[in-house]
Task: inverse folding
């Protein structure tokens, strides 16, 4: 082809909804010489967009997915391809009725219209549904359908009309060339294009394409079965694509959606069918399209019975036939979120993979903004492709988790739900000891972390009456009163916490100080032997990280951050390092043991071996000292509000240190303490903020109550925005609230788990002047204060201590009171000194 | 009227055909299986006749156990019973062996009419219908595009077209007819039909009990995908300049006078 470009500012691979949306947004942001490549024909190159059922439910528990869906819906509306139909989730079980309450409450929190319906109310809107089969429904009137192929075409054509885009269809990408870890170009079946930016928008082919450049994506093609039944007599008289609300028969994992004269019935309840990408046929070989695999009827038969039960006359019509049936391929990731951003392996290799129809345009916008160096309109940090460590970027992991998550697609998924496949993978050196102590493990970034210890069950008797037990099954699931007993025992004596899942990043070299100063809000030009707690900000002044940094030498810093955050944080830092500084991830080489509590000092003193040295003592100091004949790096900080240390040792000596402290601690009431205390109960009592919960790119340090008295003179990313935030009144204030009454309508005490909307006493939804809703960012017991604690950002006029408000939980309002903008336990921090 | 329809499990083809590494089979991992289009029409014709005259439709297939999938698909369309003459994996059955195996099922059921597709879409042998009729000693008509059964049910008329001429054969029942695509528009399975098919029992008969593999039968040695046909599209020209050439072509093919 003579007009094939040889050079591009960016090559976008894949002309599905995501790629088309991306080229449009790149063009809007001023990019020119963009090339869109697809191996298939246009407008339907044969990917998942081409067979999508194309409906959008706005309700999501995840803020990220809600915002991406909201943005995408607005874009579809602006393109004129959205038809509002309404949608109903029906319940067949009492458990689902409770879940619908949770869904409708969540919708209220996000400002989405939603209401509960009786079975007859459902039948009024969907006359062909048998109300005898269901107990009720949740109605979401703003549900709608889109024409995603048309939307993609319109966006692509706009980019072309702007003179920004060349389109190359029928060109298969054969290679992505790199040099020194940077993308240099692509090789297609129609020729080569030199470029610094390649974006993978390849849906089910994404992992295969990323591998061409040496990057690995945790993504697998998975089958979603769908049939189309028609002609439906009732639909003969309707005009347009859809006239009746879409029904999600969630207990059966199915949906029924009118499509013209047919009813589409789809399922997420058949056996998980994982498809290796190498078995996907070419466009030429495919019977329908490459992602429409032959229908395996046996897998779908149980679903037929369920749909027939729900809509007996409409679907039981002998004259209506199954006119179309596919095993459609969709993309799944281990945590259900898309893979967005630049890959950690290759500079200039971006991905917008695993975005479905309802997120596609939002993902396209976010990637275009990221590629342009902008802070994305929608905070997509939870979908950052760098969130997965190499250990999670394996095919086996993606397949195992997709298989496990597939049937949970419409399931009732608990906020603390644990997955079971391929565990354990990452175990700390203390894993066997924890197991012997009856640890109940939760998974974070594939690490096994003890959440509580069954060995502490005897404490239940000791602390009876203070354990804040949860009689409702939902809140007691993935929870134990032992957590609260451990908490109290730690505050009475001492606790030993395995924190080895921390991400530990060493930044060293002559340029290390300057580079980290440029990232951190806090002053890092401190004497060697100091530990500094600091956020990192983006250009808009929002949080991108929250971590501690130890200065171990003039040119040597050790960054300690959460196991779930280390992948993103490592990329944020290393992307901004000069040539004379290096980052090394030493997480697996170091173990961390926390020792905290009023007796922590006594315990360390009791270890007392010949030649031992004194630990670092003033708060915020750090240093290597000899303990029990080994060299230990101690840091005098705390996330639980007690005196003590974070003790870092090489992984091979962790067992030795644990045993030493364990033995010395027995006379002092030392107990093993899990992450349930460390991450929730003790943290909430102290008002400590957590990244991802309170600290997100949406909020700044002033709003989070983390502004320091002084601003360091050195420049840092986000400084201008930070200074501006300090100079104006905040639009929201982060507060800790106490729940005043737990009694529900049926008398059972209920305990919020997080995510619930905060309301005025009149029951009105709270939104700050930036349009951000007030909702519970973290929730948990405060055993030492005897109150259930919630954190939430509130508009300033409602943030004063003592302000009474409501929190809605499972459809019922509960009275709460603003208790503090800091700590509700030991507010002056005297216990830590 | 009791009707037997013979169907065969064949690879679905829609796109470019690829072969397995040993060139002895079509690669089906992304295509799946079906019955031939002619057979779909045979099933539809049988179901319509049974709906009109009463009686029932039985489908039979000679093939591996996986062919139950195709039999159930026919049951979902209205067939009342299904028989699988089960072959062992890898055993090849040519048209003689196939006709022999089917004949014992056909002979045992008292069928008034036996319908087949004119030819299978994979092997295209055109033989099984005729051989089956011969073994049963019944009359046969092939390539039928229309079947009309007399009101008293004693005979049928099978018609076919060849170069603009319609031939109609009248056959006494019982008889054998092979049909061609176009004789009707097959229905899609309904949901209740599919659920009935799922519950239905399929009678399985081992191939040894049904007949013997004949010497001298057709055997497959290997498969070859022929070269793709040359492109049929010709660019006549660009813009208004192409109009005379376009008009000439339209006149040549008789679209315009």
Result:
């Amino acid at each position: 082809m003579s007009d094939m470009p040889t050079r591009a500012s960016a090559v976008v691979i894949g002309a599905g909804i995501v790629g088309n949306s991306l080229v449009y947004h790149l063009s809007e942001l001023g990019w020119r010489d963009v090339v869109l490549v697809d191996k298939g024909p246009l407008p339907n190159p044969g990917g998942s967009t081409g067979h999508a059922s194309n409906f959008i439910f706005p309700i999501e528990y995840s803020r990220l997915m809600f915002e991406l869906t909201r943005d995408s819906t607005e874009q579809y509306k602006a393109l004129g391809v959205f038809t509002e139909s309404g949608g109903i989730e029906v319940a067949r079980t009492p458990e689902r009725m409770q879940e619908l309450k949770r869904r409708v409450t969540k919708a209220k929190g996000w400002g989405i219209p939603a209401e509960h319906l009786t079975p007859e109310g459902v039948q009024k809107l969907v006359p062909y549904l048998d109300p005898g089969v269901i107990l009720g429904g949740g109605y979401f009137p703003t549900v709608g359908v889109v024409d995603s192929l048309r939307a993609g075409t319109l966006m692509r054509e706009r980019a072309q009309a702007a003179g920004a885009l060349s389109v190359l269809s029928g060109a298969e990408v054969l290679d992505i060339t790199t040099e020194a870890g940077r993308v240099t170009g692509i090789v297609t079946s129609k020729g080569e294009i030199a470029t610094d930016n390649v974006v993978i928008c390849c849906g089910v082919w994404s992992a295969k394409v990323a591998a061409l450049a040496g990057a690995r994506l945790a993504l697998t093609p998975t089958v979603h079965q769908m049939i189309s039944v028609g002609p439906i007599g009732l639909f003969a008289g309707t005009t347009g694509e859809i006239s009746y609300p879409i029904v999600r028969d969630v207990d059966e994992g199915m949906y029924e959606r009118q499509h013209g004269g047919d009813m589409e019935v789809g399922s997420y309840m058949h056996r998980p069918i994982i498809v290796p990408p190498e078995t996907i046929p070419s466009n030429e070989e495919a019977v329908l399209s490459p992602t429409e695999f032959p229908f395996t009827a046996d897998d779908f038969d149980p679903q037929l019975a369920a749909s027939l039960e729900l809509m007996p006359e409409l679907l039981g019509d002998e004259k209506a036939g199954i006119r179309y049936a596919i095993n459609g391929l969709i993309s799944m990731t281990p945590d259900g979120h898309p893979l967005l951003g630049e890959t950690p392996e290759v500079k200039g290799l971006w991905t917008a993979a695993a975005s479905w129809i309802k997120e596609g345009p939002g993902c396209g916008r976010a990637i275009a903004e990221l590629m342009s160096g902008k802070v994305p309109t929608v905070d997509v940090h939870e979908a950052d492709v760098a969130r997965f460590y190499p250990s999670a970027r394996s095919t086996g992991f993606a397949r195992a988790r997709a298989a496990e998550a597939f049937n949970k697609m419409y399931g009732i998924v608990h906020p603390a739900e644990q997955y079971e496949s391929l565990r354990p993978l990452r175990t700390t050196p203390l894993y066997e000891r924890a197991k012997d102590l009856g640890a109940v493990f939760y998974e974070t970034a594939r690490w096994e972390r003890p959440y509580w210890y069954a060995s502490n069950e005897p404490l239940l008797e000791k602390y009876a009456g203070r354990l804040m037990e949860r009689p409702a099954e939902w809140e007691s699931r993935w929870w134990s009163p032992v957590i609260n007993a451990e908490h109290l025992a730690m505050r009475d004596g001492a606790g030993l916490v395995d924190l080895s899942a921390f991400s530990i990043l060493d930044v060293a070299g002559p340029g290390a100080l300057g580079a980290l100063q440029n990232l951190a809000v806090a002053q890092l030009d401190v004497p060697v032997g100091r530990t500094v707690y600091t956020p990192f900000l983006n250009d808009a002044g929002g949080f991108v990280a929250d971590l501690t940094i130890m200065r171990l030498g003039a040119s040597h810093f050790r960054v300690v951050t959460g196991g779930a955050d280390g992948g993103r944080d490592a990329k944020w830092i290393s992307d901004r390092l000069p040539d004379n500084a290096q980052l090394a991830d030493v997480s697996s080489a170091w173990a961390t043991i926390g020792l905290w509590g009023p007796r922590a000092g006594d315990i360390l003193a009791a270890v007392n071996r010949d030649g031992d040295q004194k630990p670092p003592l003033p708060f915020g100091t750090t240093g290597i000292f000899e303990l029990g004949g080994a060299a230990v790096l101690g840091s005098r900080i705390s996330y639980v509000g007690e005196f003590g240390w974070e003790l870092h040792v090489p992984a091979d000596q962790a067992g030795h240190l644990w045993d030493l402290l364990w033995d010395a601690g027995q006379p002092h009431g030392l107990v093993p303490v899990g992450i349930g205390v460390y991450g929730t109960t003790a943290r909430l009592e102290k008002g400590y903020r957590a990244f991802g919960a309170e600290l997100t790119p949406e909020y700044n340090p002033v709003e989070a109550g983390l502004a320091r008295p002084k601003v360091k003179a050195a420049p840092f990313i986000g400084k201008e925005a930070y200074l501006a935030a300090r100079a104006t009144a905040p639009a929201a204030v982060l507060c800790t609230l106490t729940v005043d009454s737990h009694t529900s309508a049926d008398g059972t005490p209920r305990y919020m788990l997080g995510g619930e909307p905060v309301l005025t006493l009149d029951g009105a939804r709270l939104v700050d002047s930036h349009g951000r809703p007030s909702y519970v960012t973290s929730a948990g017991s405060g055993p030492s204060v005897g109150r259930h604690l919630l954190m939430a950002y509130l508009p300033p006029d409602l943030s004063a201590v003592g302000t009474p408000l409501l929190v809605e939980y499972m459809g019922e309002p509960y009275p709460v009171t603003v208790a503090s903008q800091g700590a509700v336990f030991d507010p002056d921090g005297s216990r830590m000194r | 009227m009791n009707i037997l329809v013979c169907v065969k499990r064949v690879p679905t083809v829609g796109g470019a055909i690829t072969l397995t590494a040993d060139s002895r089979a079509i690669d089906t991992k992304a295509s799946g299986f079906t019955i031939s289009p002619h057979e779909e029409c045979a099933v539809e014709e049988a179901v319509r006749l049974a709906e009109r005259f009463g009686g029932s439709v039985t489908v039979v297939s000679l093939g591996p156990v996986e062919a139950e999938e195709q039999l159930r698909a026919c049951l979902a369309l209205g067939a009342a019973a299904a028989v699988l003459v089960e072959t062992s994996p890898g055993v090849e059955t040519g048209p003689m062996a196939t006709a022999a195996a089917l004949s014992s099922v056909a002979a045992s059921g008292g069928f008034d009419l036996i319908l087949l597709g004119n030819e299978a879409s994979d092997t295209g042998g055109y033989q099984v219908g005729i051989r089956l009729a011969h073994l049963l000693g019944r009359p046969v008509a092939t390539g039928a595009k229309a079947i009309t059964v007399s009101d008293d049910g004693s005979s049928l008329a099978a018609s076919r077209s060849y170069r603009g001429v319609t031939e109609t054969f009248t056959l006494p029942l019982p008889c054998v007819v092979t049909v061609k695509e176009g004789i009707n528009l097959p229905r899609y399975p309904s949901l209740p039909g599919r659920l009935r098919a799922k519950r239905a029992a399929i009678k399985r008969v081992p191939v040894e009990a049904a007949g013997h593999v004949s010497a001298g039968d057709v055997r497959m040695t290997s498969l070859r995908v022929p070269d793709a046909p040359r492109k049929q599209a010709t660019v006549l020209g660009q813009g208004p300049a192409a109009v005379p050439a376009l008009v000439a072509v339209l006149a040549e093919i008789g679209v315009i006078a």
Summary: Residues 665 and 685 of chain A are 24 Å apart (CA to CA). Chain A has a mean pLDDT of 96.
